[in-house]
Amino acid sequence: MGTLKDILKKFYRLRMKFSNHTGMGISAESNEKKIKAPVAFYKLEAQTNNGKRVSFEKFTNKKVLLVNLAIKCGFTPQYDELQELQQLHNVKIIILGFPSNDFGSQEPGSDEDIAEICKINFGVTFQLFHKDHVKGVDKQPVYQWLCDASKKFLRTSCSMF
To answer: Which of 5, 16, 145, 149 is deepest in the core (most CB within 10 A)?
Structure first.
């Protein structure tokens, strides 16, 4: 597994360098006019992997990175980088991990299994949420908000592969 992980890690870094250089696969918009979203991100809430509800109001005035996670995904080496990012910038950036089994059944475990694997294999300390759908009609509320352009000021794409 170590060799495969190293190969995937290098491929992922090359893919990100390509995206950064060409702009392909990356889409970002700015809010220069300071338009307020009809439904504020900080009014959302979600269930953690241990069943508690978290109001996103606690993240007000912080940069939040939402990440869809899957243990058996080829991009799993990103867990190391995400954890490093969290440790280096934990005051400025909050990472929220949303496990989902929606992509090729790459996240088959329970919330408890996912938390244990993330902690043991990658030292993850960032917040993990309840495993749920992130696409389709049953997607969890945070991803509903992300994919509904009428709830925010930015256009977004939720094709998700």
So the answer is: 145
Residues 81 and 88 sit within 8 Å (Cβ to Cβ)? no
| CA–CA separation, 160 and 145 (whole Å) | 15
- What is the set of domains in the chain, with CATH numbers? 35-151 (3.40.30.10)
Its pTM stands at: 0.73
* CB of 25 closer than 8 Å to CB of 159: no
What confidence tens digit (pLDDT) does each residue in 28-56 have?
Answer: 566 677 767 777 888 999 999 999 999 99
The residues carrying an active-site annotation are 73
